[in-house]
Design goal:
384 residues, alpha+beta, 15 strands, 25% helix, binds zinc ion
Amino acid sequence: MKRDYYDVLGVGRDADDTRIRKAFRRLARDFHPDVNPDDPQAEAQFKELAEAYEVLSDPQSRAAYDRYGFDGLRGRPLTDFSHFGFADLFDVFFGGDMFGSVLRAGGVQGGWGAAAGTAPSPRGDDVAVELELEFVEAVFGVTRDVEVEADALCESCEGSGAEPGTGREACPQCRGSGRMREVSSLGGFGQFIRTSTCSLCRGQGSIVRSPCGACLGTGKRRTTRTTSVEVPAGIADGQRLRLGGEGGAGGAGARSGDLYVLVAVRPDERFVRDGDDLVYRLDLTMIDASLGLNTVVPALDGDIELRLPPGVQPGDVKLFRNRGVPVLQGYGRGDLKVVMNVTVPRNLSDDQRELLQRFEELTTDRNYQPDESFLDKLRAAFRQ
Ligand SMILES: [Zn+2]
Ligand SMILES: [Zn+2]
């Protein structure tokens, strides 16, 4: 049983075109797929609504329906809506995503089609700043202020670009939609609509008649501001941080760009960083290396007492687990590697030379043992 078209639209038989169009738009909004994602009835109800509107919005079809009812429409090329997806139907009737974006933006003000300014505007600029850190700041993380030169919303017009007291008005070329529609008929009421960005308002849907004097209508002004940057522990020289939305302001209603912080880390006098590991070079005299030694090596969080047995060889590595750099945005820390650097005395006096020669006469094969090469140890330490 088909329902009467006037009943479907909820209008009287004497309703004029404007009234029918308004009724259709008001009801169609209730059945939009974005509003009724899980309601299987909504699609059928919308198709019924669309059919009623197709007939009653066309004077000839309406006259035939008024006189003969459904029989009067036989042979008329009506659109077969069953071929259309639910969302596509809205494109056919309303063009592009205008309707959808208006709904998603939180409702229509001033009735149907009052979509001025809801189309997406260009995004703000991305901005980059450099930040130089001390070695320890990079290792443990730090919060630092950086100066950012970027666009901000114009205070005078609050980003609208219009002289205070005036406003933006709907773009006359696209009538506020931000899009130009090219309509081709599919026969009957059905239409295929191609949309493109409006050239006059560049998709914003609105234009400014009296531009703001402070920003010349851009809605933005160049400013220098201070932004606090939280640098995570473990960041390394040459890495960069992205702060979403902290870059330049967009135009009216547009998203801001991002802020990129390019990190430079000053080298440390004590440590060489190798990924998350730290390498420390311990200088030992030939005598200390031979006799053994108790000493202290620096670490990032407090000195470490080191007890060296007799017979330390050049390039020997002592490993301290979890005393290196915290893993960036992860768990745990790298290691501290202490590499033994045995120094050989120079500029010997006669007495010293005599003693060493005497010592050499006393050495046997037991004193010198084959060992892995110095280079192999260094490679292991830096594990390239
Ligand atoms: Zn302004
Ligand atoms: Zn326009």
